[in-house]
Each structure stands twice: as C-alpha cells, then as structure tokens.
Amino acid sequence: MRKRLILPVLIFVLLGSLGTALGLDLGRVKISFLNGNYSQAIVDGEKLLAKSRKNSPNLDELYYIMGLCYLKDGNFLRASDIFEIIIDEFDNSPWRNEAKIGLGDTLYLREKYADAQNYYQKILKEGLPNKLLPQVYFRLSRSSAKLNQPQQAEEYLSKLKKDFPNALAAAPDLDALSPDLYYTVQVGAFSSSNNARGLKEKLLSQGFSAYLEKAALQGKITYRVRVGKFSNRREAEDLEARLSQKGYSTKIFP
C-alpha cells in the first residue's frame, strides 16, 4: 500500500506571512511551496541557505519550510537533518515545536512506526502548545494502529475526541494525503545534465524505465538518474539486482 505524506496544518500561517519577511526574502520559496511545487521551492530555498548567515532573520522559518518540502519530496533523511537543526540551534524559534512533529513524521514515513510512536510520546511528555496536541494524539493513534495495537490506538483516538472534539473532523488521513511514496532505484547522480541524460538514454535503450530528477543540496544542482517506481520494496530490489548484473552502481530510494 502506498504511503502518503503527513503535513502539519500550517499553510494558513505561511500564507499570512508571505509579505512579512524582514530578513531573508522567502516569498518565492513560500509561493512554490503553497502551489505544491516542492522541487522548485527546494532549489530556491537551498540558494537562500547558501548565502544566509547564522543570525539571518527568518532563517528558522526557511529551514522549516525546507523541511516540509523535503518531506513532501520523499527525501526523509534530508528533512530529518533540517528539523534537527531547528530543534538544536533555534531554542526560541516559533517553529521549534512544529519541527519536533516533523521529525517524528520522518520516522513514520520511513515505516519506523515504533520509533515514531516513542518520539511522539516523548515530545508529548516534554510539553507542547494546546494547538499542537491534536496533531500528536492523531499521529500516536495511527502509529499504534500500524503496530497492531488497536486498544492503544483507540485510547489516543478517544482522548482526541474528548479533549478536541472539533479537531478530529479536520484531521487528515495519514495515508490519504499528498503525493504517493514509491520505491525507485538510483543508478547515478551528476552535476552535468548532459551526462545524466546520456545515462538515461542508455538505460532506456536497454529496456529500463529510466527518468531524471532534478534536486538541490546545499545550493548545488544534481541530476539523478533513476529507474522504476514501485509500491513495494521487493519489486525495487528485483530491479536493483538486474541492474547490478549489468554492472550499474545502484541504490534504492527512499
């Protein structure tokens, strides 16, 4: 079954602050994010990060938006790194608690449900603003369900219904939000688009369903050559074995 992405309900906050940036100009990044163009938001955001300073105003907000974009783009490890930066380096950031939830989401989406459950419980004990509690109870309910703990899942759901009766109606189905998560096999990554296209054409000529993905990391553009999109890892592993037999260096994502 294909996973779907968890996204904290903060889009209205981003919309409301489009014109308020006094430090880094986040306008283009926010517009791309709100339009669902996460790849472009990542490219523009990485450029801003490359020229920012540690004390740049709105840097924590930029990191948070980038974390969400990488989460939506399926790069859970990069999203995890970014959320940890906010948590560790921005003690007074208004985005710090949301980043904690985002970090838990990276575990959930990597199917590390026990780790996600433990982390959600941890941040719940540490204390969160009331407005964020429904999100955490809902995630705890879903994590418990994934771990085949129906009684615990029902307990969290009951608490959500009791303490936040209006929140449940607006709660997203964690497996019915935003883009599909799929498994794919990466065969190469290049700074040159021509080199990437050359490898893609070679793979296509051999009967593989190759395609390119453009990504940004630390301000640098990379062109990834990938093959296949599968709903389960086993299919991706079978493809990886075939590619390896032909001498390609491979890696499965996510």
Give structural notes.
There is one protein chain. Strand 2 and strand 3 form a beta hairpin. The chain has helices spanning 11-16, 27-34, 38-51, 59-72, 76-89, 96-109, 113-126, 133-146, 150-163, 167-170, 193-205, 233-245; strands at residues 183-190, 210-217, 220-230, 251-253. It is an alpha+beta fold and 254 residues long. It has two domains: 11-170, Serine Threonine Protein Phosphatase 5, Tetratricopeptide repeat (Alpha Horseshoe); 183-253, 2-Layer Sandwich (Alpha-Beta Plaits), CATH 3.30.70.1070. 56% of the residues lie in helices and 12% in strands. The protein is built from twelve helices and four strands, in the order H-H-H-H-H-H-H-H-H-H-E-H-E-E-H-E.
User: Which band does the percent of strand residues land in?
Assistant: 5-15%
Number of helices: 12
- Report how far apart the termini are: 15 Å
| Protein structure class | alpha+beta
Round the mean pLDDT to the nearest integer and report it: 80
CATH superfamily of the largest domain: Tetratricopeptide repeat domain
Q: Are there runs of 5+ residues with pLDDT below 50, and where?
A: 1-5, 9-22, 173-180
Characterize the quaternary organization of these chains.
single chain
Q: How many domains? A: 2
- Principal-axis shape equals flat
Could you give a short account of the major beta sheet? 4 strands, antiparallel
CATH topology category name of the largest domain: Serine Threonine Protein Phosphatase 5, Tetratricopeptide repeat
Main sheet strand line-up:
2-3-1-4
Number of E strands: 4
Name given to the CATH architecture of the largest domain? Alpha Horseshoe
Helix content: 55-70%
Using only C-alpha atoms, the radius of gyration works out to 20 Å
State the name of the first-level CATH class of the largest domain: Mainly Alpha
> Helix and strand succession?
HHHHHHHHHHEHEEHE
